[in-house]
């Protein structure tokens, strides 16, 4: 039987690679927690400056546009803050130590009881998609930051007092074992995704909305609710 994750974390931190990744992966959960009173923060590791197939794109201009889009979407989701690390798109696999240090500092400063990040073990989705290297790299960096680095005072002592994260939820996983009911927040997820206009084709409107609703409805059927997002849960410490 499917397990619903029904807790509302006091403080949640979502760690993702690109400006729209968290909306795609867990925007419904983030919006639902924020609406229920959680302090929700998002880390975006790269600028998304390579997120275009148009060779005439100016990367710095695209990065600035995407930063504005992510802040606009944050208002719809109800996020407390968005933390932009500013690394180049496609570079995260070359900076594991730097990423881990940055994330340890954020975890110790924000003190989340729950962290959401991509499942770095999910490399292939069927026979038509290879998971982006940045998605895998940020997933490993987030996991390495919370277990054990942020909780151990001898790792990066200059980054502040140690903090133990209680729960990690891995998104984009091939092995979901808990689901978050997003029936009341799926429309916020849709609206937030529409903020990322630099990533949308002119005719994306109804198609994207229908796709998101269908995807969360499919997960909802697995969980016994109208709409859901699935995760793989890792228990590290006290519950949320």
UniProtKB/TrEMBL annotation:
One GO biological process term: glycoside metabolic process
GO molecular function (one): hydrolase activity, acting on carbon-nitrogen (but not peptide) bonds, in linear amides
Record-given protein name: PIG-L family deacetylase
Protein source organism: uncultured Acidimicrobiales bacterium
Domain of life: Bacteria
Pfam families for this protein: PIG-L
InterPro entries associated with the record: GlcNAc_PI_deacetylase-related, LmbE-like_dom_sf
PANTHER family reported for this sequence: LMBE FAMILY PROTEIN (PTHR12993:SF28), N-ACETYLGLUCOSAMINYL-PHOSPHATIDYLINOSITOL DE-N-ACETYLASE-RELATED (PTHR12993)
């Amino acid at each position: 039987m499917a397990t619903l994750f029904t807790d509302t974390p006091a403080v949640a931190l979502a760690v993702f690679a690109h400006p729209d990744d968290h909306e795609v992966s867990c925007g419904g959960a983030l919006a639902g927690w924020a609406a229920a009173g959680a302090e929700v923060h998002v880390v975006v590791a790269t600028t998304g400056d390579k997120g275009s197939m148009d060779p005439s794109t100016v990367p710095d201009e695209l990065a600035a546009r995407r930063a504005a889009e992510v802040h606009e979407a944050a208002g719809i989701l109800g996020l407390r803050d968005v933390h932009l690390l500013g690394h180049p798109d496609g570079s995260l696999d070359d900076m594991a130590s730097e990423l881990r240090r940055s994330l340890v500092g954020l975890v110790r400063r924000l003190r989340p009881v729950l962290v959401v990040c991509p499942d770095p073990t999910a490399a292939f989705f069927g026979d038509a998609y290879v998971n982006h290297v940045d998605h895998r790299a940020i997933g490993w960096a987030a996991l390495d930051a919370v277990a054990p680095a942020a909780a151990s005072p001898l790792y990066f002592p200059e980054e502040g007092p140690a903090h133990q994260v209680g729960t990690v939820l891995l998104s984009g996983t091939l092995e979901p074992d808990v689901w978050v009911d997003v029936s009341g927040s799926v429309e916020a997820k849709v609206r937030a995704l529409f903020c990322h206009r630099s990533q949308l084709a002119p005719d994306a409107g109804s198609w994207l909305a229908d796709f998101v609703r269908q995807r969360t409805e499919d997960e909802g059927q697995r969980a016994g609710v109208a709409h859901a997002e699935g995760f793989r849960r890792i228990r590290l410490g006290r519950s949320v």
